[in-house]
Amino acid sequence: MGLLSEGNPLSWEETKKLVDHVREHGINQFIHLYHRLKDRQGDILKWGDEVEYIIVKFDDEQKVARVSLKAKDLLAKLNEKELADPNGVKSLWRPEYGAYMIEGTPGKPFGGLMAHFNLVEANMRYRREEVTELLASDECVMSITNFPRLGAPNFTYPVHQPRPEDPISSARSLYFPDEAIFPGHPRFKTLTRNIRMRRGEKVSIKLKVFKDVNTKLPVEGAPPGEPDVVLLDAMGFGMGCCCLQLTFQACNITEARRLYDQLAPLCPIMLALTAASPVYRGYLTESDCRWNVISSSVDCRTEEERGLVPLNENKFRIAKSRYDSIDSYLSPEGAKYNDVKLTYDEDVYKRLIEGGIDHLLAQHVAHLFIRDTVSLFSEKVHQNDEEDTDHFENIQSTNWQTMRFKPPPPNSSIGWRVEFRPCEAQISDFENAAIVCFVVLLTRVILSYQLNFLTPISKVDENMQTAQKRDACRKEKFWFRKSSKSTEQRAACVQINGTSTNTNGSSTATDPIPLFNGTGKLNGHGNGLNGNANNNNSSSNANGSHIHNGGTDSDQTDTDDEETELFQLLTINEIFNGKPGVFPGLVPLIRSYLQSMEVDTDTHCTIEQYLRFIQKRAAGDLITTATWIREQVLNHPDYKKDSVVSDRINYDLLKSIQRIQEGKHVEPALLGQGNHSKTKDFIPPALQKQLAKTGCCEDK
Ligand code: ADP
Ligand code: MG
Ligand code: MG
Ligand code: MG
Ligand code: MG
Question: What is the CATH number of domain 1-529+563-700?
Answer without folding.
Answer: 3.30.590.50
